[in-house]
Amino acid sequence: MHAVTFRSPFEVACVEVTDPVLEAPTDAIVRVELAAICGSDLHVYRGVEAGLDPGTVLGHEFLGTITAVGAAVQRHRRGDRVVSPFSSCCGACWFCQRGLTSRCQDSQLFGWVQDGRGLQGGQAELVRVPHADASLVAVPADVGLEPALLAGDVLATGFHAAAQGEVGAGDVVVVIGLGPIGLCALLGSKERGAGAVFGVDSVPERLELAARFGGVPLDHSAQDVDAAVRAATGGRGADVVIEAVGHADATALAWRLARNGGTLSVPGVHNEPAFALRPGQLYDKNLTYRTGRAPVRALMPELLARLRRGDLDLAALISHRLPLADAAHGYSLFERKLDRCTKVLLVPDQR
Ligand SMILES: NC(=O)c1ccc[n+]([C@@H]2O[C@H](COP(=O)([O-])OP(=O)(O)OC[C@H]3O[C@@H](n4cnc5c(N)ncnc54)[C@H](O)[C@@H]3O)[C@@H](O)[C@H]2O)c1
Ligand SMILES: [Zn+2]
Ligand SMILES: [Zn+2]
After folding, report:
1. Over 90: is that where the pLDDT of 350 sits?
2. Pocket test for ligand 1, best of 37, 40, 290 (most atoms within 8 A of CB)
3. Are 128 and 81 in the same domain?
4. For the segment 225-269, what is each residue's pLDDT rounded down to a tens digit?
5. C-alpha to C-alpha distances, 151 to 81, 93, 312, 326, 340, nearest whole angstrom
6. Alpha helices, H only, 70-179
7. CATH value at residue 22
């Protein structure tokens, strides 16, 4: 089959690799109809997140049709259309039972193989899914494939960021970083009844999307973001700051923008060697800092049902739909934010 593999920083390639096979009775094989490139893939692409074996099949956002199931798989069968969360989960352990599916004791992240161990990714024609019964979710017939794909990561991660921040009615929220995660966090904050939701970035088309989604765009390269948030909150600062970047500068900004007693909700993945804040900085503002891999699998059924209403403008997020063979071009566009790139879908069947 063809699959997008990591070679070295800034070098990925669509190449011929061996087809995956069932390795455990709880596995399924999925023929991928849609995959996507995520901001998390960019950490690896840029070489900021090290450790991935060269040759690993990339990608953790995919949707497709089951072509084979192991003998122990009961909930899904061949021919079912399913969407996967970005990491697998067993459904039975202490963490899964409590909804923290992203920290399942037998969880694996798609597209992460290190020292020969791990799970190949979904930017491929075929992908092996462990614990298929618990991991995969059926795509409802009345939900579009593209929104359904987004439910497996960015939509769920963004909505989780708003929930983790405990965004409440009338809250002033600031979302830092308007990639797909930040934009979905903006939508999720609105959904929870937030008042003003500011969206901070410097990329024009991403700021435009924030406005389109009902947010107040703030260009941190051209505007005084601190002053704008102070002016909207009687000088207090925001109730909740969602940091969807994963960089020390964004942490520092989030700290400045939050009010005393506020919450920093952080989906952003950080690779710096040390935390950007001193403990005293959190103490001195009575801040709550919450972060971690979003338990998207636990949220997916509700979100897929929510998507039936068809009123979330998710199509606006997707800027590029490319054949798998053009993945290297897609990574380059997304990383450099060229051609108004906001989200790249990869379509294995598109030639
Ligand atoms: N916690 C999770 O489970 C989870 C899941 C998916 C993605 N993520 C992480 O969420 C983050 C965002 O993902 P994405 O797909 O939206 O990525 P992205 O790269 O498309 O978006 C990041 C945005 O941040 C902006 N930005 C960079 N520095 C900034 C700064 N100092 N201030 C304001 N904006 C700044 C960029 O212009 C860009 O628009 C990444 O770190 C990704 O790894 C986490
Ligand atoms: Zn992702
Ligand atoms: Zn588990």
Report:
1. no
2. 40
3. yes
4. 999 999 999 999 999 999 999 999 999 999 999 999 999 999 999
5. 14, 23, 12, 24, 23
6. 94-97, 132-135, 145-151, 154-164
7. 3.90.180.10
State the Cα–Cα distance between residues 262 and 290, nearest whole angstrom: 11
- The closest-lying atom of ligand 1 relative to the alpha carbon of residue 182 is 16
Total of domains in the chain: 2
pTM: 0.98
- CB neighbour class for 167 (10 Å; exposed up to 12, middle 13-18, buried from 19): buried
pLDDT digits (tens, 9 = 90+) for 129-153: 999 999 999 999 999 999 999 999 9
Over residues 87-141, the pLDDT tens digits come to 999 999 999 999 999 999 999 999 999 999 999 999 999 999 999 999 999 999 9
Instruction: Give residue 121's domain range.
Output: 2-139+319-347
Specify the ligand 1 atom closest to the Cα of 335.
19
332, 286: one domain:
no
